C-alpha cells in the first residue's frame, strides 16, 4: 500500500484522545555507568536498559565524533486515538528512556521482526559458510522490501517458534511473548524493540561475519516500508541510517511500528489506531516522536 500524504499527528480532529505518556520526573542510576539524574517532563529513564557492548560501530553514524547527537531524551506529546509508546536507548551507556507504558504494554511486531529472522539465519551458518545466491536474495528482499513470503519460508525452515525464542534469549528481551506459529504476531514492548535494535547493531544477532551485511540491507529499505523516523531527519543522515518498520491492518485497526539506529541511539515507536486513519497517520506519529527528540543543535 502506498503512503498517502502525511498529516501532523499533533493536529487531529476533536475526537482524538490526548495521550501524554509518562508525565513524571524520574531519578535512576544506570547499572554499570555511574550515572544518575532527574529528568523532567513526559519521559522516563530506566535503571535497566540493554547492556553496553564493547567496540565502536563507526559505520552506524554519519556524524562526526565531535558533533552533538541528533537525538536525545526529551518530553514527547502525541495525540493518538488508540495505543502509542516509544523508547530510546543510548548505545554507549545502556541508558533507556521512554513513555510510561514502554515496558508494560505490548503490540505485535509485524515486519519489524524480519531483521531478526534474517540475522538468526545468517548467524547459524557454519563459520566458513555462506548462503547461496537464492537465499541471500531472499534475505535481502525480506529486509529491503519486507517480503512476507521470504520471512515465512526462513522462519519455518529454522524452527518457527524456536526462531522467536532465540531472539528473546539472545537479545535479553524482557516483555516479549511468542504467538505460536505466527512470527508477525510476536508481542513486543517498546523497550524490547530497542533491545532488539541494539542486539542487531552489536553483533549478537547475526554474528561478526554478517552484522555489517544486515545493517547495510536496513539502510536500503525502500518502497512502502520507508517512512516514519527517517522523515524527521536531515536527508544526508536519513539515507544512511539502518531502519525496519512494521505495518499492517488487523481487524479494524492499523498496527504501525518504527525502528531505527540514529547515531548513538536506537529509537522505537509503536502504535495502534483505527483503520480509517490510514498508514500515513502511523508514519507521522513516528515522524513526530523523532522530531520531538531532535537535539536543538542539530
Tag the structure with descriptive keywords.
disordered N terminus, 8 helices, Beta-lactamase enzyme family protein, Beta-lactamase, signal, six-stranded antiparallel β-sheet, alpha+beta, globular, 298 residues
Write the layout of secondary structure elements.
Blueprint: E1 18-19, E2 26-30, E3 35-39, E4 44-46, E5 78-79, E6 83-90, E7 96-98, E8 106-108, H1 114-123, H2 133-144, H3 148-157, H4 161-170, E9 187-189, H5 190-201, H6 211-219, H7 235-238, E10 246-250, E11 253-262, E12 265-274, H8 279-293
Helix pairs in contact: 2-3
The percent range for helix content is 25-40%
* Level-2 CATH architecture: 3-Layer(aba) Sandwich
Beta fraction of the residues? Answer: 15-25%
Number of domains: 1
CATH C-level class: Alpha Beta
Uncertain runs with pLDDT below 50, 5 residues or more?
Answer: 1-59
Number of strands: 12
The CATH superfamily is identified as DD-peptidase/beta-lactamase superfamily
Radius of gyration: 18 Å
In whole angstroms, the N-to-C terminal distance is: 32 Å
Largest sheet entry: 6 strands, antiparallel
| Overall pLDDT metric | 83
Question: What's the helix count?
Answer: 8
Strands in their spatial order, largest beta sheet: 4-7-6-12-11-10
Provide the CATH topology.
Answer: Beta-lactamase
**Secondary structural class:** alpha+beta
What does it look like?
The protein is of the alpha+beta class and 298 residues long. The chain has one domain (18-293): Beta-lactamase. Helices cover 28% and strands 20% of the residues. The chain contains eight helices and twelve strands. The chain has helices at 114-123, 133-144, 148-157, 161-170, 190-201, 211-219, 235-238, 279-293, and strands spanning 18-19, 26-30, 35-39, 44-46, 78-79, 83-90, 96-98, 106-108, 187-189, 246-250, 253-262, 265-274. It has a six-stranded antiparallel β-sheet, with helices on both faces. A two-stranded antiparallel ribbon has the order 1-5. A hairpin with a 2-residue loop joins β11 (253-262) and β12. α2 (133-144) packs across α3 (148-157). The longest helix is centred in the last third of the chain and has 15 residues, at 279-293. It is globular. The protein starts with 17 loop residues before the first strand and ends in a 5-residue tail after the last helix.
Amino acid at each position: 500500500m502506498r503512503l498517502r500524504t502525511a498529516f501532523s499527528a499533533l493536529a487531529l480532529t476533536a475526537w482524538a484522545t490526548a495521550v501524554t505518556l509518562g508525565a513524571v520526573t524520574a531519578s535512576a542510576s544506570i547499572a554499570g555507568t555511574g550515572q544518575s539524574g532527574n529528568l523532567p517532563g513526559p519521559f522516563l529513564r530506566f535503571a535497566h536498559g540493554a547492556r553496553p557492548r564493547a567496540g565502536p560501530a563507526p559505520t552506524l553514524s554519519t556524524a562526526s565524533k565531535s558533533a552533538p547527537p541528533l537525538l536525545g531524551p526529551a518530553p514527547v506529546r502525541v495525540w493518538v486515538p488508540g495505543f502509542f509508546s516509544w523508547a530510546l536507548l543510548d548505545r554507549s551507556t545502556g541508558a533507556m528512556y521512554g513513555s510510561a507504558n514502554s515496558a508494560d504494554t505490548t503490540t505485535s511486531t509485524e515486519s519489524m521482526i524480519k531483521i531478526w529472522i534474517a540475522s538468526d539465519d545468517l548467524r547459524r551458518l557454519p563459520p566458513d559458510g555462506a548462503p547461496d545466491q537464492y537465499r541471500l536474495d531472499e534475505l535481502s528482499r525480506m529486509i529491503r522490501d519486507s517480503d512476507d513470503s521470504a520471512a515465512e519460508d526462513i522462519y519455518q525452515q529454522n524452527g518457527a517458534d524456536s526462531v522467536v525464542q532465540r531472539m528473546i534469549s539472545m537479545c535479553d528481551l524482557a516483555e516479549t511473548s511468542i504467538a505460536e506459529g505466527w512470527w508477525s504476531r510476536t508481542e513486543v514492548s517498546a523497550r524490547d524493540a530497542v533491545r532488539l535494535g541494539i542486539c542487531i547493531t552489536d553483533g549478537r544477532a547475526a554474528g561478526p561475519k554478517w552484522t555489517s551485511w544486515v545493517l547495510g540491507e536496513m539502510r536500503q529499505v525502500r518502497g512502502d516500508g520507508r517512512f516514519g523516523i527517517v522523515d524527521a531527519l536531515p536527508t544526508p543522515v536519513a539515507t544512511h541510517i539502518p531502519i525496519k518498520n512494521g505495518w499492517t491492518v488487523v481487524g479494524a485497526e492499523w498496527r504501525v511500528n518504527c525502528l531505527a539506529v540514529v547515531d548513538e541511539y536506537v529509537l522505537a515507536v509503536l502504535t495502534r489506531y483505527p483503520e480509517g486513519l490510514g498508514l500515513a497517520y502511523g508514519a507521522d506519529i513516528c515522524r513526530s516522536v523523532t522530531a520531538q527528540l531532535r537535539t536543538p543543535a542539530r
